[in-house]
Design a protein that fits this description.
This protein has helices at 5-23, 28-50, 71-76, 78-99, 107-119, and strands at 54-55, 63-64, 102-104, 126-127, 136-139, 156-159, 177-180, 185-187, 192-193. With 200 residues, the protein is α/β, with parallel strands linked by helices. Strand 7 (177-180) and strand 8 form a beta hairpin. Helix 1 runs antiparallel to helix 2 (28-50).
């Protein structure tokens, strides 16, 4: 991509302002202000140079378009964005329904599971140097159905004996993990230890 004269003028001015700021001592603040102003102005100056326009948005937010992207194509992406947001909200609702059958876990409760797991030969995959985070829960009753949750919606659940069978997770758990006190098994991925739950 060839940078136009407008871009070169802006870049040159910013570099000159930076050099002056480094050696200007008490007057450096003046150059800092000038440099910041030039940067803000460059946002408007460089928009035509790099083909940046504003994408129409139903939520009132402006989104940059890639160079050469036409407006109709950008508008066609709106349904896809809305579909992803709807999917995220649906999974969050599923998470909330699952957590109706749970309560927050303590570090001692997870440590008890971890001790049993390590005693039977289980391997810790991640040693953390911070306390156990708040995504750990204890299941109080069988929810009847386990949703596949991903990313920020995923959870770590300790399952006491007799509450739910590992067979209930045969359909997958997404990014969530379930720690069964019955046999000290884990379903759904790796095992962490924390500064307050080492399982030692």
């Amino acid at each position: 991509m060839i940078i136009g004269k407008r871009a070169w003028i802006t870049v040159t001015f910013l570099l000159a302002a930076h050099v002056a700021y480094v050696g200007a001592g008490p007057t450096g603040m003046v150059w800092q202000v000038l440099g910041g102003s030039a940067w803000l102005l460059s946002l408007a100056w460089l928009r035509p140079q790099f083909g940046v326009t504003r994408e129409p948005s139903g939520d009132g937010l402006a989104r940059p378009l890639e160079a050469g992207t036409d407006r109709p194509a950008a508008m066609e992406r709106e349904p896809a964005i809305a579909a992803r947001l709807e999917q995220f909200e649906r999974r969050r609702e599923q998470r909330d329904r699952l957590l109706e059958h749970c309560r927050p876990a303590t570090a001692d409760e997870y440590d008890a599971w971890l001790r049993g797991y390590r005693k039977r030969g289980g391997r810790v995959t991640h040693y953390r140097d911070w306390p156990m985070h708040h995504h750990y829960y204890v299941m109080l009753s069988d929810p009847g159905w386990i949703p596949k949750l991903y990313g920020a919606n995923s959870v770590e659940v300790i399952v006491p004996r007799g509450v739910m069978s590992p067979a209930a997770l045969s359909g997958g758990t997404g990014h969530s993990q379930f720690f069964f006190m019955d046999g000290f098994k884990v379903v759904g991925g790796g095992v962490e230890s924390f500064t307050d739950a080492r399982g030692a």
